[in-house]
Design a protein that fits this description.
With 84 residues, the chain is mainly alpha-helical. 60% of the residues lie in helices and 12% in strands. It has helices spanning 4-30, 52-74; strands at residues 35-39, 44-48. It is elongated, with a radius of gyration of 15 Å.
Length: 84
């Protein structure tokens, strides 16, 4: 049985991996690649430059999730401004 801290740490690691994957995809698309296969381990999808807006939104959401998980692990709190 895992403790809450272990579970949160696992979620932090998984979220960090997703952030790296999204950053790599956005970087590739931003440097001229026409399409990129985004493989999260749960799903695989081909993204194009048309998907950059949605991917940027998803990346922002993942970064917020990471901050929230880190705050929970450390016993702190996070204040997120609406519209960010």
């Amino acid at each position: 049985m895992t403790t809450d801290a272990e579970w949160i740490t696992e979620r932090i690691d998984a979220t960090r991996c997703l952030i790296v994957m999204y950053e790599e995809a956005l970087t590739a698309l931003g440097t001229g690649v026409l399409s990129y296969t985004l493989d999260t381990g749960q799903s695989r999808q081909i993204v194009t430059r048309q998907d950059i807006g949605a991917m940027t939104t998803a990346l922002s959401s993942l970064e917020n999730r990471l901050a929230t998980l880190q705050a929970r692990l450390c016993g702190g709190s996070v204040h997120v401004k609406p519209g960010w």
